[in-house]
Design a protein that fits this description.
The structure is a homodimer of 186-residue chains. By secondary structure, the first copy, chain A, is of the alpha+beta class. Chain A has helices at 10-19, 79-84, 105-114, 116-142, 145-155, 157-162, 165-172, 176-184; strands at residues 25-29, 33-36, 44-50, 52-58, 64-71, 75-76, 91-94, 98-104. Chain B binds a DNA duplex (30 and 30 nucleotides) through helix 8.
DNA sequence: GAGACTGGTTACCCTATGGTAAAAAGGGAA
DNA sequence: TTCCCTTTTTACCATAGGGTAACCAGTCTC
């Protein structure tokens, strides 16, 4: 599922950048480029200004498993690595030409400590994120793959424009063959 | 999975309670009592002072599905209801005599706005929670039920002392019969 | 000790999904 | 258009897990 809408908008971030002298940098990534790899520490909270990103990891059997998709105006990071300095296991791949705004720990802390608004927005973002994940676990435990597929189509049609069916299959927790079968039955 | 260790400890909370005049209340719940039901708004962030709680919801087929377990010194709430005022769909059930510390929105906001420390701890808690959920989704998509069972036994042995196998089965995403089969094969 | 519960296991068959392999369908590039 | 490459679909069989139902074991009550 796409990350919840960012509560801190680009506009806000750019304002913070000016007023707090954060020195935020941007990064441009071409289509089909992996810009974060497993094993590399994730230094940033990324704000996706433009583009579309797939987060995946390598499963026990060596296959890529899509963990989530992230669209324009949402934020992503590798929580394990960014927050806890644990080994990063996910890959970030741009599924189209993508423009990122990079926010490191220091900058994030600075924003949080200087702005009540940002702090609250950020807390909201985290809570929202937890809810999205929670709902997803419920969906896995309570719905068939077909139902999950239909729900995803309805709630995030954009994914179907940007990602391959094989990406979507592993996101839904089935093989591409199964997804194909499911699509046939509809 | 049990909620991440609370970063705000009871001791902290009680100190906040005195210094910020929060007027926190406690609640005692007997074994096998449901103290929050689907449909009821969840007014509190609960700190579990003592005891053990199971969070579950009713699946499409009418069965109870355990969403998570929460032990002593962790916090729980129904995020959808507490944060977003959406319809609450989960039940909180005390699996043993349980003592709760109740924190409502106003009190939580007051703590956050008055203490940098609490605010940071709380942010940490949310991030940690998102990570636990994230890891759980990965585990569902990448590991067999048997593996998940063994992992749970290792990481949260307490659950096996407090909860029934049928609770654990639905938590792992299988039927009690399947769990029984899995246990037999070990 | 005999019922009556509850939780857990077993047995049976069934279905959804997995795995391998091959075929089909698209989509550039020359 | 034709070739090549990638993605998707089909076909086949294998398997994990589901659903129903019965059974067993522990525990409580009378």
């Amino acid at each position: 599922m796409i990350n919840p809408n960012a509560y801190i908008t680009i506009k806000n971030l750019l304002e913070f950048n000016i007023s707090l002298k954060l020195g935020l940098t941007t990064k441009t990534v071409q289509k089909d480029t992996v810009f974060l790899e497993a094993g590399q520490h994730c230094h940033y909270f990324y704000y996706i200004v433009k583009g579309f990103v797939r987060v995946y990891y390598i499963g026990l059997d060596g296959n890529e498993i899509t963990h989530w998709f992230s669209a324009k105006d949402t934020m992503i990071t590798s929580p394990f690595s960014f927050f806890k300095h644990e080994e990063n296991i996910v890959y970030f791949e741009a599924l189209e030409d993508t423009e990122l705004l990079l926010i490191n720990t220091t900058q994030l802390d600075k924003i949080m400590s200087q702005s009540q608004y940002a702090e609250k927005a950020y807390r909201n973002l985290l809570a929202e994120f937890a809810m999205v994940l929670s709902r997803r676990i419920m969906s896995i435990h309570n719905e068939t793959a077909e139902r999950r597929y239909l729900n995803l189509m309805q709630s995030h049609p954009l994914i179907f424009q940007k990602a391959k069916l094989s990406h979507i299959a592993s996101y839904l927790g089935v093989t591409p063959q199964s997804l194909s079968r499911i699509r046939k039955n509809i």
